[in-house]
């Protein structure tokens, strides 16, 4: 089976002016790759998680004027949606590809999840140093775990607990020119490996959901 990775032209989509033109490029260039990778990853995650997992591809349906600065696919246990649940993501900004475990602001049980993660912060601290943490899925900013100490992680989780709009995402950033990004099978394998390493965090979050 042929799996396509992401080329520089896919990342350049986010430089296209206008909502309609950019969305057409996202739909024709990027979303078929999300579907091919996501169908396999959803099956793999279902085995790991012990329950059905469903692929969701961002539609950006609420956008009426401003074109999206990024796009993604998400995998979650709920067929109807993912935003209210702990979930996994793979997506693109113009300058990097991201692979995340994600808790975004719509999740109703963020407080309980944050407290549980604070008690088990080793699950985050023990991840490879090159893994990164983001506190806002709409921004490019992320900090390497290797540049954080435990008190920094706890502070991030306290913010998740206490601030209504707070988010917490942890995973990998990859540059467009990395060969693994452009090789579909290599990217699939790295994403599976990443999700496996993030699975204990996902399972802990789900236990509080």
From TrEMBL:
InterPro entries noted in UniProt: UPF0637 (IPR009403), UPF0637_domain_sf (IPR053707)
A Pfam family of this chain: DUF1054
HAMAP family assigned to the protein according to its UniProt record, in alphabetical order: UPF0637
Membership in a protein family: Belongs to the UPF0637 family.
Protein name, UniProt field: UPF0637 protein MF646_04190
Native species: Halalkalibacter alkaliphilus
């Amino acid at each position: 089976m042929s799996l396509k990775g992401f080329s520089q032209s896919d990342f350049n989509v986010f430089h296209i002016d206008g909502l309609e033109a950019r969305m057409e490029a996202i739909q024709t260039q990027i979303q078929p790759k999300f579907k091919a990778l996501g169908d396999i990853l959803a099956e793999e995650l279902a085995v790991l998680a012990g329950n059905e997992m469903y692929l969701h591809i961002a539609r950006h349906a609420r956008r009426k004027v401003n074109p999206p600065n990024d796009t993604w696919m998400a995998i979650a246990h709920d067929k109807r949606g993912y935003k209210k649940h702990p979930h996994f993501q793979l997506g693109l900004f113009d300058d990097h590809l991201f692979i995340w475990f994600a808790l975004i602001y719509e999740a109703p049980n963020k407080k309980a999840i944050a407290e549980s993660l604070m008690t088990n912060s080793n699950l985050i601290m023990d991840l490879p140093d090159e893994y990164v943490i983001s506190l806002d899925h709409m921004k490019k900013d992320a900090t390497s775990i290797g540049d954080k100490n435990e008190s920094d992680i706890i502070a991030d989780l306290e913010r998740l607990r206490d601030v209504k709009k707070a988010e917490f995402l942890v995973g990998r950033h990859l540059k467009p020119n990395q060969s693994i990004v452009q090789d579909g099978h290599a990217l699939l394998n790295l994403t599976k490996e990443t999700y496996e390493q993030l699975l204990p965090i996902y399972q802990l979050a789900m236990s509080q959901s």
